[in-house]
């Protein structure tokens, strides 16, 4: 990673390697497991109720047909994964899903569309969705691909709370996963989102064949944002037949736990979310992730196109661990990062 700051062109934010150099993040990964867990737990308790977990539900509002070549993604049009391209969902269908998620206890509703970037006319529908879901009393998040500055402002004016745009992996490993956009494209979009006054949701995927050093590079990129993201989703690769990463050697589950712990230590006030791949992790590994500082999950039986633990399974696991769902009206002192 360069020692020079990377300047977002659309706003005054920078990424600097001064706060968390990659070697310092790697040193956290290399700690004895018990010591790392203790430090992560201490950090977590300084900023959050350790028994509270945010429940977020993710809905694909426009599935498949994406022109990108992300090696992990079953929605890429160039891969034969059994995913059929669909048009954007009607507003009533989205609101029905949001009401159902709210009834099950979710406080944040996330809407994803398989676009490289939205056209301006696409935002008309998305803005209506944001307004109507917010009217239910839920937090709103969308992930639509790359944004222009005026598009970020449109979403802000509609009342959007969070915009998700993952970095996916470290800069040094990125070209092994995606060739249809570069790392700076992702950074520029995040800069425009932050410049519009929207909270940032950004994380990555582990288990794609990257090294521990490259996992440290991803966390360093996120932690050195000024400010770092309010929400940090950590995904465990879900291997989908037909994608280039299908057949990848599985990541050691304890390495995933380490990634959660390091994210918590380096971004102490962020909501660290267990995202894709929870079904493959199992209850015991998820329990360790909560101990390591994860305090948000995607909740529901499906993410964009891949499976997720059933709602009743999640409720049972949280009950067994003595964890409770974050209330929509609970103290949000850590939601805005200074």
Task: Tell me what the structure shows.
The protein has 338 residues and is of the alpha/beta class. Helices cover 37% and strands 15% of the residues. The strands form 2 sheets. Strands 3, 4, 5, 6, 7, 8, 9, 10, 11 and 12 form a 10-stranded parallel beta sheet that branches. α3 (91-103) packs parallel to α4 (120-135) and α8 packs across α9. The protein is globular. The two termini are 25 Å apart. The relative contact order is 0.18. The model is unreliable at 1-14 and 331-338 (pLDDT under 50).
Question: Can you lay out the helices and strands and say which pair or pack?
Answer:
Blueprint: E1 6-7, E2 14-15, H1 22-29, H2 33-47, E3 52-62, H3 91-103, E4 108-113, H4 120-135, E5 139-143, H5 149-157, E6 162-164, H6 183-195, E7 199-201, E8 204-206, H7 212-223, E9 231-236, H8 253-266, E10 271-274, H9 278-291, E11 296-298, H10 311-320, E12 324-325
Parallel strand pairs: 3-4, 3-11, 3-12, 4-5, 5-6, 6-7, 8-9, 9-10, 10-11
Antiparallel strand pairs: 1-2
